[in-house]
Design a protein that fits this description.
Blueprint: E1 6-14, E2 17-23, E3 35-42, E4 49-55, E5 59-62, E6 70-78, E7 87-88, E8 93-94, E9 106-114, E10 117-123, E11 135-142, E12 149-155, E13 160-163, E14 171-180, E15 183-184, E16 194-195, E17 207-212, E18 218-224, E19 236-243, E20 250-251, E21 261-265, E22 272-281, E23 284-285, E24 292-296
Antiparallel strand pairs: 1-2, 2-5, 3-4, 3-6, 6-7, 6-8, 9-10, 10-13, 11-12, 11-14, 14-15, 14-16, 17-18, 18-21, 19-20, 19-22, 22-23, 22-24
């Protein structure tokens, strides 16, 4: 029979798998080695279990192992006469990756939002689990759903992704996972919900604020629509007045004015006032219009 195999080693471990390698025996016993027998044993048990008896190369990956169990292995060479002596591995090994999955990526931010999509960016996790990160997986869910779906996979050196597989005016939440040789890690914290739409800004100021019909306690103001509505409909206008020489501005209209004119009343006869107007949309209030005044509250206008 053949002599013992040489240099039996565990060369790699993975979840449920252990890879072995060895060298041919110095002596084939006068008959060519035709194969090897590989056996395994859970250290909690006394019996050996056959892994293979027909492998013909000096390496083999034993599969179907329990990830949390410790194993010993033994190998013998076989020729036509029979099997040689067994050679055992020197210490038990666990059938799991030598490293862990990465921790969760950090600081997921959604930006550059338009009606066509958005950009999701993030920072690497604090730990890669002992093995280099191979990719990142970007996931999304509709705000009204609980189901997360992968939407894009990036390379390890790409810390952002342009997301176009979304529907205009829907709200989405995003998160990111890191992957290494051990597998996919835990997800990042979820982003804030983002509505897929063109960005809106505050409108530009109303134009050409002017007056008509001044009397001792009221004045009619008029203006024109702003040059830009900021991508959102103008919801109304705010008018303010200030006594000349003061910096204390008072709002004249309690509710937004929907028109391009407004009658300011409650003026004090013989007092000079300055006026200004603002436009408002869903994003906020514009800068003030041109300053109008000072106008004297009397009947001479």
């Amino acid at each position: 029979v053949p002599g013992p195999v040489k240099n039996l080693q565990v060369v790699d471990t993975a979840d449920g798998e252990v890879s072995l390698a060895w060298e041919e025996p110095e002596s084939d016993g006068g008959s060519k080695v035709i194969g090897y027998v590989v056996e395994r044993r859970d250290v909690k048990r006394k019996t050996w279990t056959l892994a293979t008896d027909h492998i013909d190369s000096p390496e083999y990956t034993v599969t179907g192992l329990q990830r949390d169990s410790m194993y010993l292995f033994r190998v013998c060479a076989r020729n036509r006469v029979g099997s040689g002596p067994n050679v055992d591995t020197d210490k038990p090994v666990q059938a799991k990756n030598k490293f862990d999955v990465p921790e969760a990526p950090l600081n997921v931010i959604v930006g550059n939002v338009t009606k066509f999509g958005c950009t999701v960016s993030w920072e690497p996790p604090e730990s890669d689990g002992g093995s280099p990160i191979t990719s990142y997986i970007v996931e999304l869910r509709d705000r009204t759903s609980v189901k997360w779906s992968p939407v894009q996979v990036t390379k390890a050196d790409e810390l952002s992704a342009i997301i176009n597989d979304v529907i205009e005016n829907k709200e989405y939440i995003f998160r990111v996972k890191a992957e290494n040789k051990a597998g996919v890690g835990k997800p990042s914290a979820a982003s804030q919900p983002v509505k897929i739409m063109d960005p809106i800004e505050r409108p530009s100021p109303p134009l050409n604020l002017s007056w008509q019909d001044q009397n001792k306690n009221s004045v009619q103001l008029t203006w024109e629509t702003p040059l830009r509505n900021g991508g959102s409909m103008i919801t109304g206008y705010i008018i303010e007045r200030c006594e000349d020489g003061s910096d204390k501005w008072l709002r004249c209209n309690a509710r937004l004015c929907p028109d391009l004119f407004y009658k300011v009343s409650g003026l004090k006869y013989g007092t000079k006032y300055n006026y200004r107007a603002f436009a408002e949309n869903a994003a906020g209030v514009s800068d003030p219009s041109n300053l109008l005044g000072p106008l004297l509250a009397d009947d001479l206008h």
